Amino acid sequence: MAEPVIEVQELKRHFLGRTGALSTKRRVIEALKGVSFQVLKGELFGYLGPNGAGKTTTVKILTTLLAPSSGTAKVLGLDVFSQARAIRRRINFVFGGERGLYFRLSGWDNLRYFADLYFVPPAIQKRRIPHLLELVGLSSRAQDKVETYSRGMCQRLHIARGLINDPEVLFLDEPTIGLDPVAAFELRQVIKGIVKEGKTVFLTTHYMKEAEELCDRIAIINGGQIVALDTPSNLKQYARLVPVIEFTVEGMSERHLAKIREIPEIQAATLENVGMSQVLKVQSSRGSELIQPLMALFPELRFEGVKVREPTLEDAYIQLVGGKA
Amino acid sequence: MNFLRILTKEAWFQITCNTLPRQMYLFSLLFVPLIYSFVSFIMFQHSGQASFLSYVVLGSGMMGMWSSIVFSSSADIVRERENRSLELLMATPTPFWLIMGGRLCTNSLLGLLSLGVALLIVRVFLGQPLYFQSPGLFLLALIATVYTFASLSLLISTLFALSRVARVLQNLIEFPLFLLCGMLFPAEILPSFLRPLSWSLAPTWALEAMREAMTGGTGGFWFHILLTVALASFYLWLSALFFAKIERSVRISGTLGSI
Asked: Is this complex's ipTM strictly greater than 0.90?
């Protein structure tokens, strides 16, 4: 069995918030409420959760940018707080979005700059920089200023920057956020290539298909706690016994959705806009039995269609995070 | 070895990315001392002081130099914060004080161009003769001045790093130093309660040393150089200490993203 490279035990982190302008009140916000997991060497570990679940807080702690409030977090056997500088040489991280690069420098110069900050010897830089640019498909644009790059190209350059010190562990915090489907697909291919090279990757995302396609194991975090940790195929089992009913509807509001969520037999319910219509997804072990009662509950709405289908990983995820994603 | 490589890299970065390609920086570096030179010459030409040209040249040059250093130092931190690259820099194994130190050394060296502009204006456009009694000592004082401004701005950049209103701080810090260090007027004419503040600032002694090297002075050159270097080294030590404390405290408070 592969050795663990990330070990997290009962990790907690709180932030102090202030409310009010004149008489300020302090309140404690618990971002992580005792998280435990291990990531093995060479694994692509997915960390999924809705906004505010604690994904970025975990990544910041593991990349030494944030101190834990309590519990332990070790990367490559080193403590993330007291041995931060030793960890920094051996890891790297990439967050989503195009910011963080120097737009007035070329892609090549951005990589050269960070290579020096990571103490990469010049002889190795000469070999590594062209290799990384090749890996992310930016060789032909290497000498152009980053201000001329598209968002997808910036994100790929970020990946190359994240690999500049040949890290043993790479943290990717929502790397495909805001990318078009083609750019996101290309980036996923790059991530697969990184794992083939033997690197350990810790990936946070809230795109289910991305996690399913890429990850060996997935931890689902919600409200600062891990609610499930397993392989993608095993996670689907969580929702296997709970079929999904999809209604195509018009005129539904958040008020209607809240009323549906109050029904005890319903495990999860979400509403999305698809073109001109809305799609209401309801997960319940009662399956098709619920179709008529639900339609009868809202006579003012126009139901255009309904189908019952097998649950996917996304449905398992929605069920685990309580339909609040 | 790594130390020198980082300093060289930051110098390259500062020149190609943060300073010379930016018009506002060039304005501050080259145009501001030009205005200061003309204005101070008009103010001092009928003062009857024999050494007034040293105040015009050194005063205007130093004011321009300090303006450009403070402008660039605050802008650098604001830019890194807005660009979200501050976290990326903090996450590298290079200490943040060394990154900033390299950039601020470069700012101080580039700031010498302000002094060059002031010299050029007084000599060429205003047709005034300029004499350096001890050119060698003047060069030495100039090197000490660069060191002084680099270490003082590094110390001040800890404030910029902590504050969300670095640009406001920049304005607050820029002008008092002109007066306290005696850039345009002798520091001796300041009220007595301000004098200790003036003495604690290394540029005060660097300017004294430069004036003495330029005009012949009273023989206190080496004492002033010693004070300059000692104070600047103290600033440097304090900066490294503050940066280490800031890094530790923002990791605990969770405000790294907002510094």
From this structure: no
